[in-house]
Design goal:
single chain, alpha/beta, Aspartate Aminotransferase, domain 2, Aspartate Aminotransferase, domain 1, 2 domains, seven-stranded mixed β-sheet, three-stranded antiparallel β-sheet, 12 strands, 42% helix
Length: 381
């Protein structure tokens, strides 16, 4: 028997307490018992998203459902929007927007670049009728962290322009001060920092985003925000919810409150730094630029002469440690170590040990134990 370790940026490991909560006997979703679950989940999500001003809406869907909801509820066909794109999921927001007939300007960067807030300011000055700016805070595909605080300060000056932030891989790993930073829509998914299986998406909706909703004419039914807002007045949902996932979310949010958001973010920063120092000690190069490294996932260049696909396969099949490979143009060229959600110090040590053994088996030359030692120095500091 082989013990398995999940070290991907999603899905992420699920705490035992959350798994057990989901294993409880099924309850009906139109009962006071479930109404309490809904209320707890909304309050908990407001806590982790750091908002009092926004409504929080929860969908039975993947994170992509949250993405689509932000487009169909905020715009009309033909609206001009700016989509900032420095990875696969920024690209996805552009594709969704085009599918609904929006006039999309792509502010495109390389996957190793950070979105420049000054470029957004220049675009809005030249195109003041822009109705929305879309940006990914923590780009899963590249590990790049974009400065949504600076972008929020810019978009705030345009009363008819909403700022939509994909923080699916950000919430629970990095600061995301929804109210303070002026973020109109922030979305996340259950399988990331919320420490659940996939299947839930949540979005925050600011008063400014609700004004955008009132003029929106794009077709919507399941993702119609107003249906969810109206149901929340009675602590329920407009459609059949993912009952077990919601019960699990209630439990995971309790765990997050117990740890404290400040401590959660500090833990992720420490684990990310240990991972980075560990792989660098092996002579490997980090993918994301120093000025924009997030704490959810660490992408690493595969060293010269090593088969990146085989490296990931050996780590998984022989050593039981699953990391993520690269996406699109970076398949086989990078691998990504996730440390988002239910992770602790020894998960990082285990992942680095498996990486060292796999690299050694593939003929890569390094000092054995050097990656583990460098990570330990960070974790013990």
């Amino acid at each position: 028997m082989q013990k398995k370790y999940l070290m991907t940026p999603g899905p992420t490991p699920v705490p035992t307490e959350v798994l057990l909560a989901q294993a409880r006997p099924m309850i009906h979703h139109r009962t006071p018992e479930f109404n309490t679950v809904v209320q707890n989940c909304v309050e908990g999500l407001k806590y982790v998203c750091q908002t009092e001003l926004s409504d929080v809406l929860i969908f039975a869907s993947s994170g992509t459902g949250g993405m689509e909801s932000s487009i169909v509820n905020c715009f009309c066909a033909g609206d001009e929007i700016l989509v900032c794109y420095n990875g696969k999921f920024g690209q996805r927001m552009g594709l969704i927007s085009k599918a609904y007939g929006l006039e999309v300007t792509l502010l495109e960067y390389g996957w190793q670049e950070v979105v420049n807030a000054a470029d957004i300011a220049a675009h809005l000055k030249a195109h003041p009728d822009t109705r929305g700016v879309v940006v990914t805070q923590s780009e899963t595909s590249s590990g790049v962290l974009n400065d949504v605080e600076a972008i929020g300060a810019i978009v705030r000056e345009y009363p008819d322009c909403v700022l939509i932030v994909d923080s699916i891989t950000g919430i629970g790993a990095v600061e995301c001060k929804t109210d303070e930073w002026g973020l109109d829509v922030v979305m996340t998914g259950s399988q990331k920092g919320l420490m659940l299986p996939p299947g839930l998406a949540a979005v925050t909706v600011s008063p400014k985003a609700w004004r955008a909703y009132e003029r929106s004419t794009l077709p919507k039914f399941y993702f119609d925000w107003k249906k969810y807002q109206k149901s929340l007045e009675a602590d329920t949902t407009p459609f059949t919810p993912a009952v077990s996932l919601m019960i699990g979310l209630d439990q995971s949010l309790k765990l997050m409150r117990e740890e404290g958001l400040e401590n959660i973010i500090a833990r992720h920063a420490r684990l990310a730094e240990a991972t980075r120092k560990g792989v660098e000690a092996l002579g490997l190069e980090l993918f994301a630029p120093a000025a924009g490294r997030g704490n959810a996932v660490t992408p690493v260049w595969v060293p010269e002469g090593i088969d990146g696909k085989e490296l990931v396969k050996i780590m998984k099949n022989k050593h039981g440690v699953t990391v993520a490979g690269g996406q699109d143009d970076y398949v086989g060229r990078i691998f990504r170590v996730g440390h988002l959600g239910y992770f602790g110090d020894f998960d990082i040590i285990t992942a680095l040990a498996a990486l060292e053994m796999a690299l050694s088996e593939l003929g890569y030359s390094f000092e054995p134990g050097s990656g583990i030692k460098a990570a330990e120095e960070v974790l013990m500091a």
